[in-house]
Amino acid sequence: MHDILEKSGFNPDANYKVVGTSPVKTDGYDKVTGRAKFSADAFRPGMLIGKVLRSPHPHAIIRSIDTSKAEKAPGVKAVITRDDFPEKKAGTGPGDMSRMVIAREKVYWEGHPVAAVAATSERAAKKALKLIEVDYQVLPHVIDAKDAMQPDAPILHDYLRTKGATGPDAEKPTNVVEQSVLKQGDIDKGFAEADVVIEKTFDSKPMHQGYIELQSCIGNYSDDGMVDLWCCTQAPWVYRDRLTAIMDIDSSKIRVEQSELGGGFGGKTTFYIEPLSIALSRKAKAPVKMTLTRAEVLQGTGPVSGTHSKMKVGVKKDGTIVAAQSELIFQTGPYTGSAFVNAQQAIWTRYDIPNVETTCYEVVSNRPKVASFRAPCVPQIIFGAEAMITELAEAIGMDELDLRLKNAVAKGHTTIYGQRFDEIGLIETIEAAKACDHYNSPVPEGQARGVSCGFWFNRGGETSGTMNLAPDGTVSIMLGTSDVAGSRLSMEMMAAEEFGIPVDRVRASLADTNTLGFNRVTAGSRTTFSSGMVVVNNARQVIGELCRRAAQMWNVPEDGVVFEDGLCKPASSNVGEFEPLSMKDISSKTTYTMGPISASSEMNVTGAGPGFAVHIVDVEVDKETGFVAVKRYTIVEDAGKMINPIQVEGQLQGAAVQAIGWALNEEYVYGEDGKLQNPGFLDYRMPVASDVPMIETVIVEVPNPRHPYGLRGVGEVPLTPGPAAVGNAITHAIGVRPRSLPMSPPKLQALMKGVG
Amino acid sequence: MSKKLHVEFTVNGDEYDCLTEPHETLLDALRDKLMLTGTKEGCATGDCGACSVMVDGRLICSCLMLAAEADGAKVETIEGMAAGGELHPLQQKFLDMNGLQCGICTPGFLVAAKALLERNPNPTETEVRFWLAGNLCRCTGYDKIIRSVMAAAEEIRGA
């Protein structure tokens, strides 16, 4: 880690001028006038249009693919199949990635890409797709993870053996990728100490990230071997390195350029059409633009894991939770990568429980490969876990927030996965929830209330960035993380605070992969935290350099110069009488000193502060139809110190409405034929403005001591308790516990009739 | 190849013409022929409102109208909203009140909200929510969008 940052953690006494305010975000102007350039808004001279042929079957062997007729069709410049990609070993990282992009031996889900065409128009490309002849040997399919675990289930991969399995079945072909146990204490002893033990099962269906921007890209493979890829992505460098892994192209020859990102929420951390556009371009010798349709987004890109879970929790009469045992099943699509470990670690992390055992299974089945979504795998598991906490409180007659408070983790707690918590704000958050207006308002007639508590780790990781001081004294920042909701502004604000200058004198831009060192995915709520560290470190390097230049110009020792409010000043009268030098005074004369002033930082950022939230929700349930109206919603969350409060609020509010959608409506519906029945926004119904109320926020600020501005990530925490809070509210409304996400009207109707 | 149709219309007061195939939508024509990419495609089925434009004073999803149908029409898009270089009060309020996050749905919301305020300058929160129910946003949870529209309405009424 870098010296400049190590010397200064968070300073609680600092008086900020920019941090903590809410200026207008600079990228907003182009977004309200229609000028912002999202992925589909780009065109290149000579560009062709690419389209994908997708499997109509959920599971089949590809006997042969005949593209000869398509190749001869009018306007067609290239047709690609599996043969245009190097074969990577099945079951390895590159092998799975390559086969997800384009099917090789088998198709594994309805919508699996089989071939692609580049033509002079979209219409010509679509017509050519119909001329491609694929000979399939259709196989039995399996959609649900529990069904896929049965002994007679269709097997997706003959080579798969369960990692972590023991016993006679360990060497048999299976759909269970991994069996994993995380435990501490003595679970039997724990339950023996409990006065009340509750055991329940839950399940959840996959939902989609639901970004409004369809993935679009332009791939260009030049004859000199250079690849240019324009696309919307949360991970330009990861795309580059994965292109190298599946296409055998040197990373130095690939430049990934990110567009404005029209929503991602984790779903744009992995590529789909991007490698196809490059392979088509290589063959067609022209740039190839590809844009997914909404149906393709729903069929072909990552939803979240559907789950089945069984939980057993024991509590003493005094409210001490003594044991928690769970078995969690995660559906991952045809290939591993559900990130179930997040849930295994996070399921009880809010509470100090001595005896815990959590067994996880990751299972393949014939549906699209899952992708990250805001706190991957956690909200759907907390849906059950927080239902259990609420029921324990009711069983022992304790206020449910008091039960959470009594068991809350605090500074010094070591988690089941070995992290020792520094300053965290769970207790402050629960207390703020208890004190807030919503919790203290009587539940309106005909409504019911639910609460729950969530957690996300928050991440750091590899981050690179540069800063340049222009001759006019203004500052430009180059960022490697993507801007999902205003992080450029937060970076500009932190830099302005460091320099003591107005935020308008700083501008941040998003880099392509040739401009900076490696940057991890823009995910894990790491962006403002990690790129913020890089920005602060760069600003402090630039300030150090400004002081050196001033010392040179004045011919005094370096420590004779101090930097304040954008000015280099003599440290004391002993240094001499000099007029302060502005940043411009110095940067406009670098030709007389040591040349341009810039800074670069490459870090593996650590010290992300974990985040906790409590959600409070009031609902009204129509007893006849099972329709749930959300009447009031409050998020109470520890954000650390807020860089930009209005943007923090926005993150929380957006997450709440995603949680409402997941809780009440959103799911992938499959027919007996293994085909997705709702691949469109009419039938895959996300919340609209008339479905939801204003979202109230109560933001607690317990600074993260490991960041110069004390911030914690806020992107993911506010989704984690949402579905559980809605579930608890519905339970209080109808007197029966819904145990299946989404809690849609048909399910609630059945529950109320006693048949659910 | 199907016979192309010659279509003429005004967009934001300027005259345009293009050759369009019979199946092409107004959205396709605006984006791919006229390069007016401020109007977005989110679903192409009329469910998300990202492609909202005004045609002869009516708010429509441009993905549901054929380009040929717009022949002779007066089309208004997001690109024409900042008249004379001045941001419309809705645009300014969306900026000031963080009514946008990623920004992909923003043009559609702005066009739809402007149509609302022209028809009803003093809408209730519920009226705003139901008018904008044809526009999907996945980032904001709608809170700050609704507040921005209400604040812009108030400003316009006071102006």
Summarize the structure.
The complex is a heterodimer of chains A (756) and B (159). Chain A is of the alpha+beta class and 756 residues long.
Keywords summarizing the entry:
heterodimer; A: 756 residues; alpha+beta; Aldehyde Oxidoreductase, domain 4; seven-stranded mixed β-sheet; six-stranded mixed β-sheet; globular; B: 159 residues; five-stranded mixed β-sheet; 16% strand
Description:
The complex is a heterodimer of chains A (756) and B (159). Chain A is of the alpha+beta class. Among the domains of chain A are: 3-36 and 460-605, Aldehyde Oxidoreductase, domain 4, CATH 3.30.365.10; 377-458 and 609-752, Aldehyde oxidase/xanthine dehydrogenase, molybdopterin binding domain (Aldehyde Oxidoreductase, domain 4), CATH 3.30.365. Helix content of chain A is 27%, strand content 24%. Chain A has a 7-stranded mixed sheet, sandwiched between helices. In chain A, strand 24 (611-621) and strand 25 (628-638) form a beta hairpin. The longest helix of chain A is centred in the C-terminal third of the chain and has 28 residues, at 527-554. Chain A is globular, with a radius of gyration of 27 Å. The mean pLDDT of chain A is 97. Chain B is an alpha+beta fold and 159 residues long. Chain B has 2 domains: 5-80, Ubiquitin-like (UB roll), CATH 3.10.20.30; 83-158, Orthogonal Bundle (DNA polymerase, domain 1). In chain B, 33% of the residues lie in helices and 16% in strands. Chain B contains 5 helices and 5 strands, in the order ββαβββαααα. Chain B has helices at 26-33, 89-96, 106-119, 125-131, 143-158; strands at 5-11, 14-20, 52-55, 58-61, 74-76. In chain B, strands 2-1-5-3-4 form a 5-stranded mixed sheet, with helices on both faces. In chain B, a hairpin with a 2-residue loop joins strand 1 (5-11) and strand 2 (14-20). Chain B starts with a strand and ends with a helix. The chains are: A alpha+beta (756), B alpha+beta (159). The interface between A and B is large, with 60 and 60 residues.
